[in-house]
Write a structure and sequence with these properties.
This is Putative restriction endonuclease domain-containing protein. The protein is α+β, with helices and mostly antiparallel strands. The chain contains 4 helices and 14 strands. The chain has a 6-stranded mixed β-sheet, sandwiched between helices. The protein has a 4-stranded mixed β-sheet with strand order 5-4-8-7, covered by helices on one side. A two-stranded antiparallel ribbon has the order 1-2. Strand 11 and strand 12 (about 190-200) form a beta hairpin. The longest helix is centred in the middle third of the chain and has 20 residues, at about 75-95.
Length: about 220
């Protein structure tokens, strides 16, 4: 005996619809953006920045402007690697992590960010959003100077990193004679209150929580 169900017949071309997609403004952007997320101008900039990153560019945002640069050459990568090797044991022992593609939020502008050549942070460090760390929650940032951006590396970025609250910054400079490493720590009111500079061949001692010496001759070899 056939049974009948009152209602509209289902046709083959009917489809089951899921929930309507949310507009971009409704997505969760991260605590740094607040409950309302980015403004329309910020949203356009974020989309462009993400497109550049996905296309393989190294992109930062400074003063609301996107700054694009090509990825580094082999020598630059070697210097980063040699620092990472000397930091490896202390980082692993403490359960910290290395990052080379995670930006640091630079206050006060929302969305401003710098991309250190090497960043060390705990795995649960606070973040502005998925793409940006809060500097005060990290442990160390490393910058390798470049010939065409040396002033930024030595003067502009340290002030930005101090505002962000990064506890320790290491700047490796091959474009001076003799080659040198500058160590900055103890950020306060937008500047670092402690600094030391050593030449190639002289060890540089990192303050706590690292408490180790880096052999500069092994870095510059």
């Amino acid at each position: 005996m056939a049974t009948g169900i009152t209602g509209r017949k289902t046709r083959q071309h009917d489809t089951v619809r899921g929930p309507e997609p949310q507009p971009p403004s409704a997505r969760t952007w991260g605590p740094g953006w607040g409950a309302s997320g980015p403004t329309e101008d910020e949203l356009r900039r974020e989309r462009l920045w993400q497109d550049l990153i996905q296309d393989g560019w190294r992109a930062e945002i400074v003063g609301g402007r996107i700054i694009v640069s090509p990825w580094t050459e082999r020598r630059h990568a070697q210097l980063v690697h040699r620092i990472q090797v000397q930091l490896f044991n202390i980082v692993v022992e403490n359960g910290w992590e290395f990052y080379q593609t995670w930006s640091v939020h630079i206050p006060p502008a929302r969305g401003d960010r710098r991309l250190p050549d090497l960043l060390v942070a705990p795995p649960d460090s606070p973040e502005f959003d998925d793409h940006q760390a809060y500097g005060y929650g990290t442990l160390l940032a490393v910058e390798i100077t470049s010939s065409d951006n040396r002033v930024d590396d030595l003067e502009v970025k340290p002030a930005e990193y101090a505002r962000a609250g990064i506890p320790i910054v290491l700047i490796v400079d091959e474009f001076t004679e003799p080659k040198a490493i500058t160590l900055l720590w103890d950020p306060h009111d937008g500047e670092y209150r402690s600094m030391t500079k050593v030449s190639e061949g002289v060890p540089v001692e990192l303050p706590e929580p690292f408490g180790i010496k880096l052999e500069t001759d092994l870095i510059f070899r």
